[in-house]
Design brief:
Belongs to the Nudix hydrolase family. NudK subfamily. This protein is an alpha+beta fold. The chain has helices at residues 67-71, 88-93, 98-114, 169-177, 184-195, 197-200; strands at residues 3-14, 18-27, 33-42, 46-53, 59-64, 78-80, 82-85, 116-128, 137-148, 163-167. The strands form two sheets. Strands 4, 5, 6, 7, 8, 9 and 10 form a seven-stranded mixed beta sheet that branches.
Length: 202
């Protein structure tokens, strides 16, 4: 049976994330073994949550500049569902319960980025964001918000400059078709909501 085994790692770069060089042993069904070198971006696990207002049925998004997109020459801010890292403090509060730590991160990120208060939070699933290069696991949520409790806009100390915007589900779907929403995690949540619209928006 084919298998991949981690043999050793070394750090190439350490910054906001860590870039590791992993030496992997690929074992094939026919018995052949090949040693592979793979760069692995060791990124913190994160959360992403699509917000909706029960009173207006509008969806709440963030819009902000993302360095990799600008690096690619795309000169526009990215429309996204609210997202952020699960901090070490979140794990420290719940060392045996990753989902509980993710729940804390969701509440914090929504307040910091949008200013909205979560009235109802639904956890969906946890998926690897880009398993070909990154270790990041992303915890997906949908949440109902009921009132603004602070300004939002993100933390300037973290380099954030976030604009909050609202639109209907149909408008969001149209923006996907027009390639105005280009963030994969956001598209996944919009399409999930489209399928389960009756549960949340009706």
């Amino acid at each position: 049976m084919s298998k991949m085994i981690l043999k050793e790692t070394s750090t190439i770069y350490k910054g906001h994330s860590k870039l590791e060089l992993a030496q992997m042993l690929q074992q094939y069904d026919d018995g052949q073994e090949v040693l592979l070198s793979r760069e692995v971006l060791k990124a913190r696990d994160s959360v992403v949550v699509l917000l909706y207002r029960q009173d207006t049925k509008q969806l709440v998004f963030t819009s902000q500049w993302r360095a990799p997109i600008v690096f690619c020459g795309d000169q526009r801010p990215v429309i996204e569902a609210c997202a952020g890292n699960i901090d070490q403090e979140d794990f420290d509060s719940h060392p045996q319960d990753v989902l509980a730590a993710a729940n804390i991160a969701v509440i914090r990120e929504v307040q910091e980025e949008t200013g909205w208060h979560i009235a109802k939070l639904d956890y969906l699933y946890a998926l690897y964001s880009c398993p070909g290069i990154s270790t990041e696991k992303l915890y997906y949520y949908i949440a109902c918000v009921d009132k603004r409790i602070q300004q939002g806009g993100g933390l300037r100390s973290e380099g954030e400059d976030i604009f909050v915007l609202e639109m209907s589900l149909s408008e969001a779907i149209e923006k996907i078709k027009n390639e105005e929403i280009i963030d994969l995690k956001t598209v996944a949540l919009i399409q999930y909501l489209q399928i389960h619209k009756a549960v949340y928006l009706e």
